[in-house]
Amino acid sequence: MSATEQENPIVAVEQKTVLFMDDELIAIRAEDGHVYVSIGHLADALNLDRQGQTQRIQRRPVLFDGFRRGSIETPGGAQLAAMLRVDLVPLWLAGINTGRINEDDRRQKLERYQREAAKVLWEAFQEGRLTADVEFDELLRQSSSEAVEAYRMLQAMVRIARNQILLESRIETQNTRLDQHEQRLEEVEAALGDPRRHITPDQASQLSQGVKAVAMQLSRQTGRNEYGGVYGELYRRFEITSYKLLPARRFPEAMDFLNQWYASLTGEAPF
Questions:
Q1: Which pLDDT score, from 0 to 100, does residue 118 have?
Q2: Pairwise CA distance, residues 122 & 96, whole Å
Q3: To bridge 226 with a disulfide, which of 88, 171, 207, 218 should be the other Cys (CB 3.0-4.6 Å)?
Q4: Residue 262 CA to chain centroid, in angstroms?
Q5: By the 8 A CB rule, do 43 and 53 touch?
Q6: Who's near 120: CB < 8 A, 6+ residues apart?
């Protein structure tokens, strides 16, 4: 990504507040289709220095590639925030050394963030899920009530709809490529059928040999040099001033004309 692209704030088409371990994390889906999370909210949740973490991300090229500024809605109004593409969150968190954290609770929290946070943030936009409640997940696994079954059915329908959208997108892309391929074929066919397109050098050589064959047979019968006469008849019939100017589309017709003339003079099969 260029520096200019990173300087231009991304535009959020959707924003969600995602609850994770009682922390409120702000995530957005941008116009480019990617999900980004507020670095400031992540840093606050983990008791890390906002500016220090932003600078650390900017120093690492692989993280900086997914670093953008974006406008988010807060209780105080719209604010420009440092954002990180959600798929890079685990890599960023992995760079934090949990061994240097003395408090057990804080270290365990960071380790759980490293394992689960990115997945929860991504799922918030893919399946409408806004919380990572362990008790809720356990209820889904153990219960078979009508409410649980209805929830499972709705989740399955969301996944099916998502897969259908992706499938339609791939089909649309393939159809676009087919349309482009057909357009190129039509352009080639149009070029081949262009009346301004002349025969190739190889076709011109075949035509010249045909003229010579007819002229030789005709000269034997008349005792005169008939080359100019054969060329003249060819030019008159096809309305050209040189055999090299014969339209490519009329090449088969010209060769057939010479073949029939040769056969009428010799009684032999055309050359």
A1: 76
A2: 21
A3: 218
A4: 57
A5: yes
A6: 18, 20, 129, 132
70 belongs to a structural domain:
yes
Q: Which residues contact 23 (CB under 8 A, 6 or more apart)?
A: 41, 44, 45
Residue 132 has pLDDT above 70, yes or no: no
Which pairs with CB-CB distance under 8 Å and at least 24 residues apart come from 240-244? 243/204, 243/207, 243/208, 243/211, 244/198, 244/199, 244/204
Residue 130 has pLDDT above 70, yes or no: no
Same domain, 135 and 205: no
Strand, coil or helix: 66: coil
DSSP string spanning 191-213? HHT-TTPBPPHHHHHHHHHHHHH
* Interval 184-235: pLDDT, tens: 765 555 555 555 588 999 999 999 999 998 989 888 888 888 888 989 999 9
Is 179 a domain residue?
Answer: no
Expressed as residue numbers, the domain containing 116 is 3-144
β-sheet bridge partners, residue 31: none
Indicate the number of domains in the chain: 2
Pair 30, 140 in one domain: yes
Distance CA(234)–CA(148), nearest Å, equals 87
106 assigned to some structural domain = yes
Place of tokens 């120093």: 59
What are the residues whose beta carbons fall under 8 Å from the beta carbon of 81, sequence distance 6 or more? 26, 38, 39, 40, 69, 70, 71, 72
